[in-house]
Amino acid sequence: MLRIQKLVLHKFPHVAPGTFLEFSPGLKVLLGKNGTGKTALLKLLSRVAALDFADLHDEGNRLSFGQKRLFAFYWYLACIPEGVVLADELASGFHHSWIAPCLDQIGERQAILAGQNPLLLDLLTFADAEQVRRSFVLCSLQDKPDGGRECIWHNMTSAGAEAFFRTYKAGLQHVSEILRVGGWW
Q1: To 5 degrees, how large is the angle CA 4–CA 25–CA 43?
Q2: How far apart are CA 119 and CA 72, in angstroms?
């Protein structure tokens, strides 16, 4: 079974040299604003994993956008029953009640998801700060001296994960709120 353990980039367009990411088993969420490279990272990982994403066609247009995406996601999971799950904007177009069953279907498989939907984030659960640290890749942009910009991707720090987990354990805020207030999302 394919597992992605780490990614080290030294020369990759628009990415900070020396980028190092660890990918543990289980769920990993890429966090960042639009244009920070979440989708680019997923595309890079899909090339590494040598996966093909087929388009779903519905000539009669009988399915809604969300229904097509849901069907495509379940088809994708069926096609790679033991491989790594890579999904961009998984919850986009979904009815809120569809998100938890999708996460349930991922189960214990390694999954790397990019998205900005707080509903997806709010369904995540954490047993400890180390699980928090392993669960997020933080994505941002940095100005380069030549006037260009580069993506900065890194795992959450241990101190950040501890701070997140303390707030999470208190149970007063949703995961998305903790991430936003903490400056991670």
Answers
A1: 40
A2: 20
Residue 10 vs residues 41, 47, 139, 166: alpha-carbon distances, Å: 14, 17, 17, 35
Residue 179 identity (one-letter amino acid): L
Angle at 126 between CA 24 and CA 152, to 5 degrees: 50
Q: How large a percentage of the chain has pLDDT more than 90?
A: 48
Please state, in angstroms and rounded to a whole number, the distance separating the CA atoms of residues 167 and 183.
14
Here the tokens at position 71 are: 């069907």
Domains annotated for the chain, with CATH where assigned, are: 6-181 (3.40.50)
pLDDT tens across 53-99, in order?
A: 344 344 555 678 888 888 889 888 888 888 899 999 999 999 899 99
Two tokens, residue 27: 């769920």
Angstrom distance (rounded) from CA 90 to CA 11: 29
Residue 49 CA to residue 134 CA, distance in Å, equals 20
Q: What is the largest CA-CA distance in the chain?
A: 52
Name the residue among 86, 99, 184 with its Cα closest to residue 137: 184
Return the structure tokens found at 145: 């001296």
Spatial separation of the C-alpha atoms in residues 121 and 99, rounded to whole Å: 10
Residue 185 has what DSSP assignment?
-
Residue 57: what pLDDT?
A: 45
